[in-house]
From TrEMBL:
Residues that span the membrane, as ranges: 20-41, 53-73, 93-117, 138-159
Alphabetically ordered keywords of this record: Membrane, Transmembrane, Transmembrane helix
Stated name of the protein: G protein-coupled receptor
Pfam family, any one: 7TM_GPCR_Sri
InterPro entries the UniProt entry points to: 7TM_GPCR_serpentine_rcpt_Sri, Nematode_rcpt-like_serp_H
Species of the source: Pristionchus entomophagus
Amino acid sequence: VLGVMGLLQPHDPTIQFAIRISKLILTCLSFVLAVMCMIVVRKTKSLTNDYANLLLFLIVYSTLFEIFSQLIYDPQFIMPVFCIYRDAPFINIPFNAAWGFIIWMTLVALNAPLYAISFLHRHQIIVPENSLLKLNRLLHSALLIVIAVPCLSYGYAYYVS
């Protein structure tokens, strides 16, 4: 790791400025596309209300994750050590790179319960009413919590290990 760190040199200020502007443009473009996707989901008549809300939540969550990654955390990826420096965040909330990494990994891990509950919802629509695999809404919520609780610890556990 020390050898890799020794190879790092600061970029020319014009290159740093170009990278910052491109991050801002791509994040704004991603936000605009997310809004367009949300409009399409809302206008689609063939989706159930619950599934449309799940899709909207996935879009909002992924957009907020990107905003956190690009504008607030702005990690400097140096292999093999991830995110040991913050580059130049647009929104400079004072926290160190370690806590930013823990939050970032936790946000990545929380994608799993969102996709799992979306899959479960679609699966429950095609299951016959009298099937043993038909689950009630309380069990859906319990399953979401069972999946989400360990995901909240992944960032810290990964950082500590």
